[in-house]
Write a structure and sequence with these properties.
Strand order of the largest sheet: 2-1-3-4
Number of helices: 6
Structural class: alpha+beta
Largest sheet: 4 strands, antiparallel
Shape: globular
Distance between the termini: 63 Å
Strand content: 5-15%
Radius of gyration: 18 Å
Order of helices and strands: HHEEEEHHHH
Helix content: 40-55%
Length: 190
């Protein structure tokens, strides 16, 4: 009798546990501006290099290590002058699988950070500037991402899709989202 693998299927348990932990624990209604803001911020953080499993409620820091972003647990003042690059700000993963970013006060003074953010923003606008519905373009599975970033992207997609349904914002094309997010007075409450 040849031995191979685990016939009881116990090898799937860690993967299923990881998958479950990347699902949104909370779904909330959002305005169009909140959807776009959460989508942009979370994609920015998920574009960063990191090789650990982020946890909700923990502070992380987003650095620009030319030409890429890097997510770290180490605050700028803890690097003792050897930071991987300029720090954009503090990040936190929320239970709904979106990220919040609090930019540093001096981040706007750094031309390198500004240029990198402009480039990312332009790519984000290109992503939205389509006739495809937003819920169809969410990152349900992104094969080129490393494991944890892929799981978090799928969690983001689940969260935003559920929020769109809860908020009555489905069936809108990307271009409509761009127009809606640019208009003032959309019931933005945050």
């Amino acid at each position: 009798m040849a031995r191979g693998g685990n016939p009881q299927g116990k090898g799937l348990t860690p993967v299923l546990s990881e998958w479950q932990s990347a699902q949104p624990a909370l779904i909330r209604q959002r305005t169009p501006r909140q959807v776009i803001g959460d989508y942009f911020t979370t994609l920015l953080v998920l574009s960063a290099e990191f090789n650990f499993k982020p946890a909700s409620g923990v502070s992380y820091y987003l650095y620009l290590r030319d030409p890429a972003w890097k997510l770290s647990l180490i605050a700028p003042e803890e690097w003792l002058g050897r930071a991987p690059g300029p720090c954009l700000g503090r990040c936190e993963l929320h239970p709904d699988m979106t990220w919040q970013l609090e930019p540093r006060q001096d981040a706007g003074e750094n031309a390198e950070l500004g240029a990198a953010l402009d480039a990312f923003h332009n790519g984000f606008l290109d992503l939205l500037d389509r006739d495809e519905r937003l819920e169809d373009s969410l990152p349900h599975y992104v094969s080129h991402l490393p494991y944890y970033r892929r799981l978090l992207a799928a969690g983001l997609a689940s969260s935003l899709k559920a929020s769109l349904e809860l908020s009555g914002l489905t069936q809108r094309k990307g271009r409509e989202w761009l127009k809606a997010a640019a208009r003032p007075g959309l019931g933005h409450t945050d």
